[in-house]
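Newbie here. two chains, one complex. Structure please?
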Amino acid sequence: MADYQNALPDLLPRPFLKWFGEKGWSPRAHQLELLARSVSGENMLLIAPTGAGKTLAGFLPSLTDLTRRGQLPPGSPFVGVHTLYISPLKALAVDIERNLMKPVSEMGLPVSIENRTGDTPQAKRQRQKTNPPDILLTTPEQLALLLANKEAERFFKDLKYVVLDELHSLVTSKRGHLLSLGLARLRRHAPGLRTIGLSATVSDPMDLRRWLVPQTTPQDDGPEAPAGLVHVTGGAAPDITIMTTEDRIPWSGHVATYAIPAVYEEIRKHKTTLIFVNTRFQAELLFQELWTINEDNLPIALHHGSLDAGQRRKVEAAMSANRLRAVVATSTLDMGLDWGDVDLVVHVGAPKGASRLAQRIGRSNHRMDEPSKAILVPANRFEVMECQAALDANYIGAQDTPPVGEGALDVLAQHVLGMACAEPFDALELYDEITSASPYSGLTWELFERIVDFVATGGYALRTYERYAKIRKTKEGRWRVSNPQVAQQYRMNLGTIVEATELNVRLVKRNQLGSVGRGGMSLGKVEEYFLEQLVQGDTFLFAGKVLRFEGIRENECLVTNAFSLDPKIPAYAGGRFPLSTYLADQVRAMLADPSRWHVLPDQVRDWLAIQRDKSMLPARDELLIETFPRGNRFFMVAYCFEGRLAHQTLGMLLTRRLERAGARPLGFVANDYALAIWSLNDMGGMIESRRLSLGDLFDEDMLGDDLEAWLDESFMLKRTFRQCAVISGLIERRHPGKEKTGRQVTVSTDLIYDVLRSHEPDHILLEATRRDAASGLLDIGRLGAMLARIKGHVIHRPLERVSPLAIPVMLEIGREPVAGEAQDYVLEEAADDLIAEAMA
Amino acid sequence: MNYRMALAASQTAGPVASAEIMINGVAAHCDPLGALYLPDLSCLVVSDLHLEKGAAFARRGMMLPPYDTLATLNLLSAVIARYDPKTVISLGDNFHDRRGSELMPAAFRETIGVLARGRDWIWINGNHDPDGIFDLPGQSLDELLLSGLVFRHEPSLIAGRGEVAGHLHPSATVARRGKYVRRACFATDGARLVMPAFGVLTGGLDLKHRAMHGLFDHAALIAHLLGRDRIYSVRFGNLIG
């Protein structure tokens, strides 16, 4: 490291040395190492905890290079953008501009910096194309838009650096796939560009190091060496505690209302508190509950992804100016935003993953040499154990970030169309470019051809759409878009985040309704399916207010202030993370080992002790199955600890098997820890009398035919299909000239799914859906690992009544749609009512 | 949940249980496939076929699967074979857009030709296809009067007695013990009837939706829900939604 200190005058131009000197600082070793190695031509990955000066490190190569270049004289020929900075969050791009402008203006550097996000006005975007800034701060979607432009080559030909922030969170998603393809295209426009990845700690840095370099070169001499690594470790150990209160810890639920007075006390005791929750729903509720007891009128704000962008910017600005005492936030605030003097992080609900916890705690006190302070607030008794496990993990530095997956095919289809919009492409050249991106390095030529065919005409065996093709092969053998409308449609529908249809929520005055237009304030967006359940006068919680639903007008939901204290609550589908495999294992271990219980609160310890008396506690590698009667039903509870997604899949498959075995199952419910199935026949008795074998029931072969059969009618697969259909461009989110009636333009993807299943089961989009589902929604990989693990270790405990351990999952039984075959059964009963009525 | 694609793919000749009803004094059978049969007139009625819906979207750049027409025609063949009617009435929105019948591939044209052979075929014009049909057997009409019944595409608020219409794609939801099931349905109060959509690529509109208001006498309204091989008849008051 000393080398770099000695090389300071060579590495840093005079204004930098002067600025550091005036501040009484010296550049950190990792900043200099990253600078030196980038300048010498290496692609680099910097892994560092929050507060280590990651941002400045990432920009030093660009800033020093631009400083040496100096201001371009007026009248110079066009120069393209010098540095691209890509962040996963719009807010982060805005925040970085603020943070970066400070040293740049203090040093008086001749560097122009601008951001470009979905919120950037059209005029500014247009100007950026003709007169680009030196450093452009943007998002993966905006990059894709720029690359699909005819001017892309001119715009990017002078590109020297691409800085990728929060890389660990980007690469595991479809946005990361899109970005990797964009990066491959950037390399073609600017072959000499270097990448600088910035990341929090990850389980496998090699994944990211490969991601940052091309996997094939035009000379085809194999993949480039992985990016160089600068790894900053250390920092003070965080001070994390689990909140203890005298109040009863609830059996189930995710809101932790019992702890709200205690959380409020902590807010009062600290300067600025960040309160993280896992879902928007929790955020809404917690925010409202805090204000209910906010006798000191402390400035407490709310921040989540459904809120209006303007509202969010306001909160962010107030936060950075230290005007707030607390912010309740979801993952929108999860990443790298360095704001204000946060001295406490409260995490309500279990963090669901050790890495996520470490990341969120990093928000507090972002000087790395002082310990961060955090309090975990478990929302129910299982979460107490989960919090304890996460706490242990954070101390021992365990990491459980997901691996970088294989590139999604729907994203690839979107990219192929985008590339045709930019300029006619040669299929072979584009294939080489795409396979240089690490997520797509294993893509076969055959699969690529099918994707191109899909983009052109839908890829159907029945070739009736040739005359409507979106892209066509020219005489020279290059693919080009059929007409300008196709490019326009592409631009309107780009992106990989598919939300359920959302309507803008507008607050109006009650007497204005029906007469006056839309004077009121926009509060954000809420999902359409939720609103469809409401009738006028219903109340719900949104943007921290209790609102009265007044009606839907065109694409807006009109609401008035309600004065009700008992609102219906938005039931957001997204946002709940499944328990990580690592934490699940830790919770199982804790459950099995009473010597570790002393760290748990009394009530949780008592609960486990009673469970041991009334039933049993499974060993770490065992699967406990309890059966008991309740009401006029029989229940089976399996304690799998594999997360809600895997449990739901398991529930679907087990009910099929139980149906065949004659148990007449009626339904099931899953949480992160367990699965409960109920039936008309006595499953416990069937197991005892050996009419039902648990070994067979939980055999791994359920992932064969049963899985296939279930996928045929699975609702979850349909939801996955909807995403693929939208991202791949089969279905449009928006159609030119049809914005007003957007809701009617869309066609039901469920119907399309059924058509494909029955007529073209190996269609490329079904293939894409199955791949997504296996890794994502269905968590099939994890389920398979569990079935293998518990083989021969399934223990049945027949009980007279519900056990203590079963209470949390039993409390989740509620309104869920029935699957498949049971549907006609429900219809029959409903129809029978009519007969009874007629006979009376 | 949409059964129609699965139905189209797996039509069996098994027995089905229709619901036998009266519309303005005329006897009719509600078939589980979503067709209405009038035995005294040997007349089969289907509504909202929305043929060539996939192609209509493809023309706008959305390449929906090109199999919907085939599947709908398979269902139609099955229900025609079941009753062998003298007359077939298709109650409008026969095609998903104005150009549908003109641009339909020849193979489907032939299928319709075979189905229509030896029968009278009436194409009522709908809002999606107001210009009528192109080069297909049968005649186009805006509405048809037959034995005290009037067949038109869009239900009218006035003159409701004896009206058989489509357009609204009615569906209904029933619930038991917190479980709910939604299906396409025939909706009738004895005076008039609104048909379920027959096309496989069609959505549904709940019977409680405001677009249905004012059409029926709710006290007498019954939803005949389409089950796999029977009709489930549920009073309006017992529906949820």
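Moderator note: Chain A has a mean pLDDT of 81. The two ends of chain A are 92 Å apart (CA to CA). Thread marked as resolved.
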